[in-house]
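Hey L., structure's done. Input below.
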Amino acid sequence: MTLTRRALGTRLAGLAAAIGFGQSAAASVGAQTTSPLDPELRDAALRGLALASHRGDPVAAASAEATLVRLAETDPEAGLLGRIYQLLDVRPATYWHDDLPQAATADLATLHGAIRTSRPVAFGYTDLSGKETTRTVLPLALVHPPQGVKLLAWCGERKDFRQFFVRAMKGLTLEVGDFSGNRLALLQGLLDKEAGRA
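Output:
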């Protein structure tokens, strides 16, 4: 199916309104009866905005940047995630093994669900030097740098934010708990830490 520019624009405007971009979009949505935006659709839109500056189109990049600023006012969590994706989803790798296995689909499904429901997870982990540890973490986001899919999380053992390659996890399990009340503050702390590195 081919979309005209106008049809594509209409669909994107509807998506923007559903996410809550700007006051007029929010008012328009309030006048209609709509269901909440699907979490996967929202995440895909945020990742697209985050990548706009890498497409060689400064006009689109400026528009995406302005949208992220407005989004932070209407949906703070989405605004934070958009910034985190800008920093980490496309960061170039200096070195990685190209013969390492891919992240397991079942583990990725578990992590996506845990992030969406703010549930802690536990797993065994082997770091790049071969050291094995057991971790219990609060999963905040998944990012996709060239080295492989990484989980960004608050680590209970280290009392700090950590990044974990999903492919290096084993025995991933959901734990009892709900950190939804702290999720926004954790995302802000993660963004502050990563922005300080950039």
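The beta strands are 121-126, 132-143, 150-155, 160-165, 169-174. The radius of gyration is 18 Å.

-- N.
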